[in-house]
């Protein structure tokens, strides 16, 4: 058997595994308008937490989602730039407004 034919026969199965598709790209970051701006809601600190006030905070910050942070509760550490976090105390007074 000719050595060139042997080399060709050995490379043929590898060619079958090759792909001509382009690699998958990571999705682009969300546009700036989907980002939360906590500075816009700092005036709500000290007010009583209510569902209506939560809606106003979402609107003021430009966030897409709201996460309430009750006292002494565990929260995930995942960061989402389109989420506003509203922490409150036992008297339902808002103590902190952050994004993430």
Key traits:
Trypsin Inhibitor V, Chain A, single chain, alpha+beta, three-stranded mixed sheet
Specify the CATH class of the domain at 33-100.
Alpha Beta
Average pLDDT figure? 82
Separation of the first and last Cα atoms: 67 Å
Summing up helix and strand content along with how strands pair, one would put the structural category as alpha+beta
Order of helices and strands: HHEEE
Flag low-confidence runs.
Answer: none
Number of strands: 3
Percent strand: 15-25%
CATH architecture term of the domain at 33-100: 2-Layer Sandwich
Alpha carbon gyration radius: 27 Å
Proportion of residues in helical segments: 25-40%
The CATH topology of the domain at 33-100: Trypsin Inhibitor V, Chain A
Order of strands across the main sheet: 1-2-3
Name the shape in a single word: elongated
Q: Report on the biggest sheet.
A: 3 strands, mixed
What's the helix count? 2
Can you say what the CATH homologous superfamily of the domain at 33-100 is?
A: Trypsin Inhibitor V, subunit A
Describe the protein.
The protein is α+β, with helices and mostly antiparallel strands and 100 residues long. The chain has a domain at 33-100: Trypsin Inhibitor V, Chain A (2-Layer Sandwich), CATH 3.30.10. It has helices at 3-17, 51-61, and strands spanning 65-69, 83-88, 94-99. It has a 3-stranded mixed β-sheet with strand order 1-2-3, covered by helices on one side. It is elongated, with a radius of gyration of 27 Å. The mean pLDDT is 82.
């Amino acid at each position: 058997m000719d050595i060139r034919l042997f080399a060709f026969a050995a490379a043929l199965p590898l060619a079958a595994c090759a792909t001509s598709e382009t690699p998958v790209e990571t999705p682009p970051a969300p546009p700036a308008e989907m980002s939360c701006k906590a500075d816009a809601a700092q005036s709500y600190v000290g007010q009583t937490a209510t569902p209506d006030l939560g809606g106003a905070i979402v609107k003021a910050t430009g966030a897409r989602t709201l996460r309430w942070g009750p006292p002494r509760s565990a929260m995930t550490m995942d960061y989402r730039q389109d989420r506003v976090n509203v922490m409150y105390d036992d008297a339902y007074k808002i103590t902190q407004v952050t994004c993430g």
